[in-house]
Amino acid sequence: MIDPKKIYIDNFTYDLPHEKIAKFPLKQRDKSKLLxxxxxxxxxxxxxxxxDFIPDKSLLILNxxxxxxxxxxxxxxxxxxxxxxxxxxxxxxxxxxxGSSVWKCLIGNSKKWKAEKLVNSFxxxxxxxxxxxxxxxxxxxxxxxxxQWQPEDINFSEVLNxxxxxxxxxxxxxxxxxxxxxxxxxxYAKNNGSVAAPxxxxxxxxxxxxxxxxxxxxxxxxxxxxxxxxFKPVKSKTIEEHKMHTEKFSFNKNILIKxxxxxxxxxxxxSVGTTTLRTLESIYWLGVKLIVDKDIxxxxxxxxxxxxxxxxxxxxxxxxxxxxxxxxDRHSLNTLSCSTQLLIVPGYKxxxxxxxxxxxHQPKSTLLLLIASILGDxxxxxxxxxxxxxxxxxxxxxxxxxxxxxxxxxx
Length: 411
Known about the structure:
It is a single chain. The model has no long low-confidence stretch (mean pLDDT 93). The protein has helices spanning 156-163, 180-183, 206-214, 253-265, 274-293, 317-330, 366-375, 378-388; strands at 33-37, 42-46, 59-63, 65-67, 71-75, 81-89, 100-108, 118-124, 127-138, 143-150, 191-194, 218-224, 247-252, 269-272, 300-301, 335-340, 355-359, 399-403. It is built from 8 helices and 18 strands. The longest helix has 20 residues, at 274-293. A hairpin with a 4-residue loop joins strand 1 (33-37) and strand 2 (42-46). The chain has a 10-stranded mixed β-sheet with strand order 2-1-18-17-14-3-12-13-16-15, with helices on one face. A 6-stranded antiparallel β-sheet has the order 5-6-7-10-9-8, with helices on one face. Strands 4-11 form a two-stranded parallel ribbon. Helix 5 crosses helix 6 (317-330).
């Protein structure tokens, strides 16, 4: 098998005409096209009928993260426009604090912003609020920015919701419109923290969930806060030189128990989205890390951890998850928060999901590498079919179900 670090990104590209990128979503989420691939043939349907292609008693796992309106626009006295893209709070409580909050941010037109404080205003419930931004510290690829606002009777989550803009993907190449506040969000979004959406979930509606329930298909949720790095193209020649972005995730003990039960019953587990799949695999490696490294304090999964011989022990899903459950019990935890930099490339062995619901991804992206890990070279056949049959691509595009095609590592 090829060394995963030596994979050439040029082998994972395709011609994506601009007109194939969906600029706006369909008015009805579940009317999007659905491509089903099962190693034998490609089928075409609509998402509303997805329950027809998922076995009874399956378990769907979804990412319930909520996209924040992370783009703030300020104007200097000179008229220069400065855009501040809020990536994540320095502290997890910062988003709920009133009056002041410090965030890691990207800055658009940063050369025009020196040391002065930026100020703008907005109205909310018949009150006028003043919001200021001040540089605190420069990081490698970002800045720490302190935001302050008056009056202090709202928190920063509300500030963003009122005055921020939807952080649409750069490839849409347009400004957000009012409808994006609803459409660039899953209907089950719950936990604030993402600056990009788990787009595979866009197609789900109440009717779709009802149809799944009729087949005794259960839905459970984890949370991974999707970062702006998800859009970062691989610019290096080989994957070894690419630095994967880090994202925070959390899960509760009950979902671990449910996954173990589902696996033992041999009923299917379907991941809704690449963010969910990366989270599930990261949880598995967290359990392995607890077993191999014993009592750990570092709850992060690094980019290449799964490819190191130290952790390649053939540990079962059940043993990995039970180790996490025992750790949570010892520390009286119902929820565990971690971070992952996990990079899934062809040759990776999956441990949990039997299938994935996903959208179509950009050429030369880590997301496409993940799909190639599932489909092998057949990803080209699938994508060529989609391009030839007028499927809509990327975030607001159509959907796929890759069922029973994962290279799942049973042990």
